[in-house]
Amino acid sequence: MTFSRTSRSFLAIAAASLLALSGCGGGDGGESGADLTEVNFGYIADYNGASLLAVADDQKLWAKNGLEVEAKVFTNGPLQITAMNAGDLDYGYIGPGAVWLPASGKAKIVALNSLGNADRVIAQAGITDLSRLKGKKIGVPEGTSGDMILTLALQKAGLAATDVERVPMDAATIVTAFGAGQIDAAGIWYPLLNNIKQRKPDLVELAKNADFADQMAFPTAFVAGNEPAADTEKTGKVLQVLREAMDFRAQNADTTIALTAKLLNKSADDVKADAANSEMLDSATLDGYLADGTVTKWLTGMGDYFVGAGKLANNPAPSTYYAGGGLQ
Asked: What is the pTM of this model?
């Protein structure tokens, strides 16, 4: 694979990785089982979070690049970063709402994955406008993209945090609580929203990512714990796998949907609908966005939001927490 328009630091990582691979045996160019580097990799059970892992497994990209991976499913990004800091996870996937965690020094971003549009603020039937959320009980998974979309929506409506009753709960609990009528509204995302709609087909979608496109982008990302990120050989191998999987996904959309559906034990139609909520990146597009400063602009804009939302005390330079190389 050719890494175009990347920085010297990234090329050094890739070169170290390829050098290590070139000296090893293996049937299809990968390493022998005894030489594989073990990696614990977290994911979320949706298309954004699982599609590259499904491709990498099917195409045997892990072994090809000298890795043996144990994949672990999580319900959100913050839980994965907590696991990283406990030493239980090496790499993982986060949505845009959790980018404040690497920005605060708790992890490093190694690659962007997609531009998300799966987040929604939903309300029970009869609540037809954001302004009507005043005084309502709203479920939110703190520190996630559900938190982010809710905060943006309340700001748009001119409502302060004290104008509503925010109820922190995990995403799975929101599905149950909203379906039972125990909360009036929620910040949540697809495909979990499909589960809620089965019980509450008359729910109202009050806000979505696209409503704030003029303010900020919503990139999803792959992250590493600070210690694994410092291991340039291992991180180079992981990054190589992700890039190859990204390009396979871009060139084989239907196959990737089928592979992801199999991994998640869902129907291909459901996964296809989930995939439609995001714009998937391939390696060349990501390299271009890195080289022309787009990624820096995205992350800086998100940092400004997180400062305003009280997640960050200040907005650090993206170069301090983006470890994938190529950042301008």
From this structure: 0.84
